Every structure is written in structure tokens, then in C-alpha cells.
Amino acid sequence: MRRVSSKMSCIVSRQFLQPQPKFQINAFRFYCDQPDLSSRKRPGPLTRYRNLVEQGKLQHDPEQERVAVELDNLFGRLEQYENKMGEYHVKLAKWENERENERRRLLMEEADLKQQSDKETTVSKYRNILETTVSKYRNILEGRWMFRKKPENVERGVGKWVSYLNREKKLDKLVGWRPTPPPAPKGLYLYGSVGSGKTMLMDMFYSATEGIVKHRRRFHFHEAMLEINEHMHRVWKNQVEEKSLQSNISSWIMNLPFDTNVKEWLVAEERYNQDIRMKNILPAVADKFLVDQEMDQRGASILCFDEIQTVDVFAVVALSGIISRLLSTGTVLVATSNRAPDDLNQDGMQKEIYQKLVAKLEQHCEIVLIGNEIDYRRLIAQRSISKAHYFWPLDGIAFKKFEEMWHEVINQSGGKVISSTIPVMFGRSLKVPESCNGVARFNFNYLCGQPVGAADYIAVARNYHTVFISDIPEMSMRIRDKARRFITLIDELYNHHCSLFCSAASSIDDLFKGTEEGTLFDLESFQFETETEGAKLRRNVLAEGNVGSGGTPTGIISMLSGQEEMFAFRRAVSRLIEMQTPLYLEGVCDLHPYFQRQSEELGDDSERTLLSQPTC
To answer: What's the chain's Rg over C-alpha atoms?
Structure first.
């Protein structure tokens, strides 16, 4: 208890600033060095791994060291590749500007010809009227011929599609093809059992690239799916593109010296050009997927993707389109999963599309198995676990200890417990019944017994560094939907490096073993939020079929296999165990987004002071 008390003093002793929502996480553990502000050179993954083994924080494992060597080799090639990618982005931006300028110039030429054609057509109509007095038959013949006559430079009878293609061909000749990105070093696709060290090694690599690679993002599966869905949602609803299009039209077409009908033709051509781009939506989303919104810099060089899954058709199609696009444009991928790419899509969903993704992964990544079967989270916990973060069973004694811990943390925070509301994606919000200075408390049924999902849990994890969850039951078939939500909740609290306190009906190891009602199989799917026709919609991404006009998913069929469920259970248990260890808790103050926002807002001098303090 003394260890926990000192830890909580560390967490709540600082004067916190109110967090601002930001859709990005930094989920590093104890194995990721804290920023060394005095040196630009950061040690590579292999050096980090061996240092932790020497310090006794990790047990040496030949499989993990082999993967660390692979990551270190990749790390060594990144600096030169980053320089080449910087040159490529300059060329790409120049090419895009030149192509857009030439496209508009061609449109102006076509518009000018069209206006001349319209004037000649008008003259022809008046001439036809005059010639009616001479001869009706001659008038009809000449009128038809004059009405159809076009300038030689204007193509006859072409539709928008042919016109668009011809214009693109001219642009290829005038400006050239899109610049080819430099050959990227092969990334790594790491797979293996729960607790084998996949995420740890990937995060070591990601942390080491700070300051070396400018364009870099790290996503967990849930967060990636939500962000992809949000981008697609905006495109479909024309919330961004339509406004941008109208602005462009107003700024350069409406002020042109053309007649109204020619301007309308230009608007139609621009709309068609936009429609063509939007029909191929996944590349458009991929190009925005790794944009640094703050720096307004486009195209990341590295994507670290934790827990790649193919839980549904949407995931298969979206991941195939976006990852294929990123790999084709020079992004280096380091990913983790519980299965090899060939074995990931066991239900055979969209097989042809998925096989193209597998081919891309094999072309651009080394497929590496971490072959050990040891759960190192459990091994670390056996050496140094603190029981004070998980209270069971749900009896009077455990309840009293849980309440005492809650009051201790709140008293140390020096604030007042209030009810608050936090923003969630898609314009939603979530009410938090009890919170105080980055600490929040929930009942299990409040978080997992109502239609909430990953977007809500990400919002909770970002805004609160310490979370209390009470009355967690043993999972059974009767509450399988709650069990699946609870697993997603644990994933997000872990990914954001939250401190977690639980009161539960059973020990961690027995939590997912089921009850007399039977073991847990065929859980309800992972869910996320979307919107249909302005109404809030709970969308099940394991659904086959379309969303009806009433906003209700039709044809819901769960595709999550029993093996995938058991893997999710084991992962949740493993993470719950690690979240109690001192090694994990020591990182909360430095790694949780709540504290990182504070450091950024306080500035470099304050950051140096905070990082020098041995409180965490």
C-alpha cells in the first residue's frame, strides 16, 4: 500500500491543466526512454532492449532479441530514407501545383472556345429566322447545319468522362506522370502469441524514430478504424469537400469574364472532376490518414499499427485499400498482429481484395514470427505485482478497500468531485458521473452496459489518467456484449497508459472463464459510431448488408471466431495484470496524454524541470 500511495502522490501532486481533445496517442511503456532533451541522437531498438535486460527490467529472450536486431537494421536505414522522402515531397508538391495550374489553363481554353461557339450558334439562330422568308425547306436544312456547326478545335459529341480522360492525357504530356517515391526499406509485420513482446518492440522502434523521421504515426486497430470511418463519413456527407469545392468555384470561376452558361459549364466540369476523385474514396482517405494536422505536412514516412485485425468486411476492405495505398507511396509499415497475414482472414471475407493486401504486405514487409509462448507481462507481474489496484470479490471487505483508495486519490488531488461531460467523436459527448483533476470513476454497467464503444473509451482514456471501475462481474454468455465492450475498454486504457483501479467479482484469471451459464463464445462485435441522415447511429461493423433508411443495420451476422475471442480474452487478462505492476505505473506520469499536454503547454523549461523530477 505504501508503494501505491507514493505513486498516487506522484500522479495527483501536480497542478494540471484542462486537457484538450486530440485524436492521437503516445502509448509507450517503461521500455521507451524518456526524452533526452540534451541529445538529438536516440538509441536504437536493440540498444534499448539490451539496456533493459542489463537493468533487470526484462528477461532476455532470443526471439525478442532477434526481432530487435531486425528493427535496429530498419532504424539504421531511416535517416537516409527520410532525407530522400523530404526531397520527394517537395517534387510531389511542385508536380501537383503545376498539374492543377495546367488543368485550369486547359479548362480556360475550352471555356473560351465554348463561348465563341455559343456566340456563333446565336448568330446562326438569327440567320435561320431571316432565311425562313426565302424558303422553308432551305431554312430547315441550313438551320440544322448551322446549329450543329462547331469550331474545329472543339471535340464533337464527347461526354464528361471522355472529356475528362482527354484532359488528363494532355496533362500527362504537359506536366508528366506523378513523381515516383524513393524505394522504401522493408518494414516488419510482427506476429505471435499474447505477451510475447510484439507491442513492446514496436514501441521501442517508434520511440527511437522521434527526431529522425518527421512524418510518423502510431495507431491501435480501434483508433485506426474510427479515424478511417470518420474520414469516409466526411467525404460521403460532403462536409469538407463540398464546402471546399464551393469556395473554389466562388473564388475563381464566378469572377471569370465568361457568359453565365459557360460558367455553369465550368462548374459542372469541376464537379465531375471532384466526383471522379471521390468515387475512389480509399486512396483519398489514405492520403489524409497520415497528415499531421498541426504542421499541415502531408505524407508520413512511418506507420506503426498495433493489433491488425480483420474482424469484418469493412476492416478488410478499408485496411486493404488504405495500407496498399500507403505502401505504394513510400510509407514504411511496422505492424503487430496475433496471426500471419495469410491466416488473418480465416472467414474468407472479400478474399480477392484481401489477397491483394497480403501480396502488398509480403512485398513491402518482412513477415516475422516471435516464436515464444511466454506471457512476459505475467512474468514481470509475478516478480513485482501490486495487489492494491484490483479488489475482489464483490464483498464488504473489498468494497471498503476500493472506497478507501478512491477517497485517498481524490484527497491527494486537492479538488472537488464533480459531474462533467467530455467530447466524443462524431459530435457526440459522454457524461462522466464522478471526476476530479484527471481522475474519474464509473460503474461497469455505465461503461459497458449501454451502447457505447471504442470512440467513448478513447475519449475517457485521453481525458483521465486514473480510472476507477466498480462492480465488474464474471463474464458469461448472458452479458457477452458487455464482455466485448469491456475488452475494448481495457485495450484503450492500456494504449493510453492509464492507471486503473477495479473492483470485481473474481480474480483476473477467472474473470473471462465464464459462469454456470457456459463459456464465452461468439461475442458481439466491436462497435463504433457513425451517423446516417443526421441521426446518431450505432453501427455494427460485423454486419453484412446495408444500413436501411431508418438508420438500422440489416443482416447482422457475427464473424468473430471462437479462437479470436479467446485471443481477445487472453490479451485483456495479460494487460490487466501488467497495469498493476510498478513498471507500468511508473510510466503514467510521463506517458499519459494528460501529462504530455501539460508539458507541451508549460514549455521547454518547465518540461525539463518536470522530467528531471524523480517523482514518477
So the answer is: 30
